[in-house]
Prior knowledge:
Structural class: alpha/beta
Number of helices: 19
Number of strands: 23
Largest sheet: 10 strands, mixed
Shape: globular
Helix content: 25-40%
Strand content: 15-25%
Amino acid sequence: MIWDKERRSKAERMEKAAGYARGKRVGTEEIVPFLESILRPGDRVVLEGCNQKQAAFLAEALKEVNPEKVHDLNMIIPSISRDEHLDIFERGIASEINFSFAGVQSRRLAEMVAEDTVKIGAIHTYLELYGRLYVDLTPNVCLIAADKADSNGNLYTGYNTEETPMLSEAAAFKSGIVVAQVNEIVGEGDLPRVDIPGGWVDYIVKADEPYPMEPLFTRDPAQIQEAHILMGMMTVKGIYAKHGVESLNHGIGYNGAAIELLLPTFGDYLGLKGKICTKWVLNPHPTLIPAVEAGWVKQVCAFGGELGMERYTAARPDIFFTGKDGMLRSNRAAAQVAGLYGIDLFLGGTLQMDYEGNSSTVTGGRLSGFGGAPNMGNSTGGRRHTTKAWRDMAPLTGSMASGRKLVVQMTKSQSKYGPAFVPELDAVRIGRKAGMDAAPVMVYGEDVTHVVTEQGIAYLYQAQNAEERTKMLGCIAQGTPVGSMVGSGEIERMRREGKVAYPQDLAISPDAAKRELLAAKSLEEIADLSGGLYRVPEQFRKKSE
Length: 545
């Protein structure tokens, strides 16, 4: 019986690659033949592509390998963000993909799936994908990105550590080959800190240019609409204050940005400072700066960095997790665990919701994936510590469960594309057509506790059954087909019972939902409030000029 086949395979690959490496260092110009020497057909390959940090140099090099030598790869790319991520499928280098989020590539991915150019293994939440690296998607080769390396392969990931530790460890300790592209190679002892030990890393290569970063989570306050403000006011008073929510996550979008900018104004008016929204798990949103500066925020655990926030996070170590070098230490896997078990509330937006509260961002023509939303947007049955917010969600069925996480979905009742509430999610049809065993639903209706539209709040955790859940949604989507399923008498009854709340039920005037309520009305104002520490990203500066 041979017990070290994987180790022997790694040794054979590294021997084949010896001509391209001097110690651990691979020449920039030799990266393509080097990859051809370490890769084998059918390999499972991790390519770091997360929200803000992309192993772009290695992705471009992988696209250039000879498909006669390297083909049928099973790619594991957490966030499909670049053209090269899909180019490798068109060239026959890869055949299957497992991912979490697609974003700007969602339309192209959908088209390629329809043409059978790409086979989707599964669409995952981030934590689920990381977990499978240690179960049934353990990589043969792992391609990652870092800021700096020394000759021993020690890596400094700096402001944007993100998912690098989880990806590299899965390969490093299971006879996989770990290759890191770096912006700079420094002398021994010259790294600001060691984020990934050299013992995990087999090869380093200096990229031809620094890896790209995008301000994915930045939302310009200038784009926040009065509807966002009204929904934010209702959420602050009708959910956060009502349940005493102290720890939370906001997903990407203008709804969360509006709430963050309302805390130092509307929240102060309600006397809520120190009572709600003190501990956060989220990327360092610029729109949170006014609340930080006003003393609302006690701590932030970051999934990743955000372009322009480097100096601000370094200057606020009491708020953010930072290293001895002063820079932010982000960690997507740790933050996902914190978001799963450590927080009381998840708030996110959705593109589509069905009549039972199921929601998805996978809609007609798009395969955008989920990111971390399903991980944080579920009832977290394994949690055992309690808080007021958690206990408020305790089931009324005689269950011994002490409570559940608040899962809040926000959406306008309708948009230029039609009603947000539909009888059946597009995801059901898309999943069926793509041959998926399960429809790519982002958040299940049973896990959603609150839905907020510009019309009001539906407290779905109080619904007795699926039929009542539908009628509660209809109450806050009047003027749409689901709204026609509930009569005026039922609406009034649900308002009296506290199952639905309209603005007037919360003593909120829609006329008060004006932009003047925002603590900052532009990114430039946020930069001023930060004392000049926040730098508005170039693409947003161009927009504002």
